[in-house]
Design brief:
Blueprint (H helix, E strand, L loop, with lengths): L12 E4 L4 E2 H5 L3 E6 L6 H12 L1 H6 L2 E7 L3 H15 L7 E3 L4 H5 L14 E6 L5 E7 L7 H16 L2 E2 L10 E3 L5 H7 L5 E4 L2 E4 L5
Parallel strand pairs: 3-4, 4-5
Antiparallel strand pairs: 1-2, 1-5, 3-6, 6-7, 8-9, 9-11, 10-11
The structure holds benzoic acid (BEZ).
């Protein structure tokens, strides 16, 4: 079964480097990023985990918990963490799920047989405070992810969950946003007191409302 945006993120129990967890309980009312790696002791994954650890305070600032997964056991993750610190200078400061039986990987469709029957691809699931899936990404083993981009998307998701706006191409926080077409001009004047510019009848831009 493929998980779609808006689906409930499946709950599970798992062993992690921070002890056993039940996903929904661990997550609580926070947002979460659940991301998988093909395998332990692999080069790209080593750099990715260091990058994620470096940005953990940024995720926390957005009320987001992060958790990694690979199909290797927790004992292997723990050994690998030493290498990650050696190489990246970062202590892995978030839990890593050990999933040797591929229970969680299968639940989330993280194993793509066209890529490998045995390894997880680089999946990313952003899960909202309501436990619904807000974003999915799938990268091949050869391409490391950009965790700044994941933060950027979370900024957009959290903003657009609160205000009737969308964010344009390459948007970064602080830049103008787009008023959703369903809002009439009359309502827009009330909802966006900083004003808006009508570039086209269907494209109205306004300063980011919460700044
Ligand atoms: C890597 O992270 O570099 C990697 C992962 C799976 C297969 C090969 C390389």
């Amino acid at each position: 079964m493929t998980l779609q945006l808006g689906d409930l993120a499946p709950d599970f129990t798992a062993e992690t480097t921070h002890g056993p967890i039940r996903f929904h309980e661990w997550k609580g009312g926070s947002w979460a990023v659940l991301f998988s790696h093909p395998k332990d002791f692999t080069p790209v994954c080593t750099t990715e985990l260091g990058a994620a650890a470096r940005l953990k305070p940024e995720f926390e600032r957005r009320n987001v918990k992060i958790i990694g997964l690979s199909v290797d056991p927790v004992a292997s993750h723990v050994k690998w963490e030493g290498d990650i610190t050696d190489v990246t200078g970062q202590v892995v400061n978030f839990p890593m799920i050990g999933d040797p039986d591929r229970v969680v990987a299968n639940l989330y469709g993280m194993i793509h047989p066209n890529a490998s029957d045995t390894m997880t691809v680089r999946s990313v699931f952003v899960v909202g405070a309501d436990n619904k899936i807000k974003l999915t990404l799938t990268y091949p083993a050869s391409t490391g992810r950009n965790f700044d981009e994941i933060l950027r998307v979370i900024d957009s998701l959290q903003l657009t969950a609160t205000y009737q706006v969308s964010t344009p191409a390459d948007w970064t926080p602080g830049q103008d946003v787009i008023i959703v077409p369903a809002v009439s001009d009359e309502d827009a004047k009330r909802k966006f007191p900083k004003g808006f510019v009508t570039k086209k009848p269907y494209l109205r831009v306004t300063p980011q409302p919460d700044r």
